[in-house]
Amino acid sequence: MTTAIAPGIVHLAERVPELTAAQMVAALVPPPQFAHASFESYRADPEYPSQADAKSQLMGFAGGGPAVPKAGFFRRAPKIAPTKPGVYLDGGFGVGKTHLLAAIYHEMPVRRKYFGSFIEYTALVGAVGFQGAVDQLRGADLICIDEFELDDPGDTMVMTRLLGQLVASGTRLAATSNTPPNALGEGRFAAQDFLREIHAMADSFQTIRIDGTDYRHRAVDGHAVTLDESTYAAEISAVAASAAVSDDAFHDVVAHLAHVHPSRYIRLLDGVELIGLRDVTVFADQSAALRFVALVDRIYDAQIPIRATGLSLDRVFPDEMLAGGYRKKYLRAISRLVASTLA
């Protein structure tokens, strides 16, 4: 859901987007880069058989039957399709989990289905209340949840109750995460106080492990591209002649994110075809870093390239943050930042 705007330079730090509940529900579809994702277009890495196994199981879950073995591709018979109401794709970033999740969405022959990030569902609850979210989603045949994360006790309770009510009414679930469902919340809050809720939620899912390496790093050195001031200015100006380009100081964007609900980050990017960030620096505040991670996810989903000056964007999260409970989030963001600066 993007809006075309006139060519020229805009400033993300000056945008104050609004998003109604109806717009939030309407936006629960796969992002543009996965608008046509299918099982056929999923490229399983032959070095990691779990990728082909996962594809086979998920085809059964989506109602398309198991994948047909081909000589030299599958060496084992496909596993039986999941029987629980939900499937949970557990694996590192860049192994194709979101592609497979979108393939389920596109290929499951059902009437009502939704696809959104974890934060989009919790934002819906925040906008219309818990019962309002249940009412909006009740009757859905399929709910897809990308990057399932439980960063605080409130989210734990909300998502457990929401998914429990939806499953009880017949909704099927598909989710991705970098963390197995019984381990959600570990290292972030006192997960032991919520084990009953976490385990109850996990009982709705059959976990499918997907191993592999980050496809975004298979052909790159893992470093984000940094431009000098003159090169940056020239590229921003050149693109702005025919398209909308954002140009902001990194500090200004980070500060502005604190005043915009994460559910609205996608609207900050409306119509923008290139993002410019000047004078990038390292994060000192974890809350600010996590807000930036959420913005990076939206930028990557929208496939908007980034140009930046200052510190390389793969170095904005200090070692102490990378060693903490949000390590996987930061590593995912670094992977996506590298890919976005190379685009």
TrEMBL record:
Q: Which SUPFAM superfamilies does the record associate with it?
A: P-loop containing nucleoside triphosphate hydrolases (SSF52540)
Checking Gene3D superfamilies in the record gives:
P-loop containing nucleotide triphosphate hydrolases
Which keywords appear in this protein's UniProt record, sorted alphabetically? ATP-binding, Cell cycle, Cell division, Nucleotide-binding
Its Gene Ontology biological processes? cell division
Coiled coil ranges (UniProt) are none
Indicate yes or no for the key word Phosphoprotein.
no
- Origin, by domain of life? Bacteria
Which protein is depicted? Cell division protein ZapE
Query: In which organism is this protein found?
Result: Microbacterium sediminicola
- Source lineage: Bacteria, Bacillati, Actinomycetota, Actinomycetes, Micrococcales
